[in-house]
Prior knowledge:
Number of domains: 2
Shape: globular
Largest sheet: 9 strands, mixed
Structural class: alpha/beta
Helix content: 25-40%
Strand content: 15-25%
Amino acid sequence: MTNRKARWTFRASAALLFLALAGISAAGLRAEAPYKAIRFKVDVTPAIGLDMAYCPNNKVDMPIYVGGVILDDGATRVVWCTCDYIYICGETCQRWKQSIAEAAGCPPENVFLHSVHQHDSMLVAPEFNPPAGTVDDDGKPVPIEGSDPQYVAKSIADITDQIRALVADDAWVPIAELKTAETRVGGLASNRRLIDENGKCIAMRWTMTTDPALQAWPTGLIDPMLRTVALIKEDGGIYAALHFYATHPQSAYRRSMVSGDVPGWAVRYACEKTPDTLHFYFNGCGGNITMGKYNPSADAAAIVALGTRLGGYLLKNLDRLEERAGGPIRLFRAEITVPFDPERVNPRHATWGMHAYFEKTIDRWRHSSITRFNAGEVNILSFDMGELCIEYQLYAQALVPENFLAVAAYSNGLYEYMPVAKAFDEGGYEPSPDACLVTPEIEPVLKAGIREALRELIDNPGWVGAPRK
Length: 469
């Protein structure tokens, strides 16, 4: 890290020395851009008839994509990749990271692979599929549960082929700086856990809740902020924008049609308004957050209404971008040991499926990681696991309130829900055996990992180069 910092400082010093010696104005010198980037976007819409997460795909409501940016500072290269899937799970998630890393030319730990979590989409986990010839108790073939293997193979091949070709063609675009924006969002996220005066979860405000009594409850605990990291070209144009917001992303599902849902519509809306910019959406710790309070119709019309609203906020962030001090790309990683509860591993026993698979492979997944991406004053916290609840995102934000910190979750979906400890006493869906594989000890474990990943910012608050305490 010291060498990278020295190299970064040297660039600026060398430029100033050259100006002094040559006696020319700064206006006449084109400085070397501190970053370079490649953006990519691949259509991964499944064919008609393929099984999705909850139902077969009988119609394309909206195409789905995998896309993102490769960012390089001359010493370190990372890939930020977002997928319009409900999840990528298990070994498949690991293999995709490895494949993307090889195509992009970086280590697999530098690939941040996240799903948006739309429910009318694909569950990418062929390891959940039953072995060939498996039948149920009635002698009927057990259906695919983790998506068609040929679809999975073609999708990752298409993704890596595009990345590899772009890198081989030297399609890098100089990035002069990273800018950020934060906007308070209204009328989208709401907490779905309705807790009474006795501290018990008495109802769930699901995505498609249209009961006026449940919608009338307060919004509840959310992170209302949409955060954006924009890659700025040398001419001042916005090459790509990474957006981060925490909520379940769907307004309507189980419709037997593939859809990018609310974020898909929002990204399309924003791209149409800013055709020179590619927009990419990342979901934060939205495990206990939905749009149920504000879902106007629980059908396709809601996608347009909520998607346009979200798209408007994406554009608003582009209008209020703030300059940030630059710096070399650095990664701070905290390793955690996940406290699984063996009694919860297979509560819904099936002939095969996710829980049966997890029961066979539990020891392989006891260790996970939390990584902070840092470039000067820009920070993004990435959880290499599943559906964290909003309390963990708010905890991270509270530790470093003077810093810009975006959050991305929904990586390896095998881990399922990660509630806070008190939720196990409150009840409700997230801590139930149907949804959760961990014990209440997950809270101190995750919070310790978050603190470790943020340690430098905690010890040096406020700005780049703050003196150590």
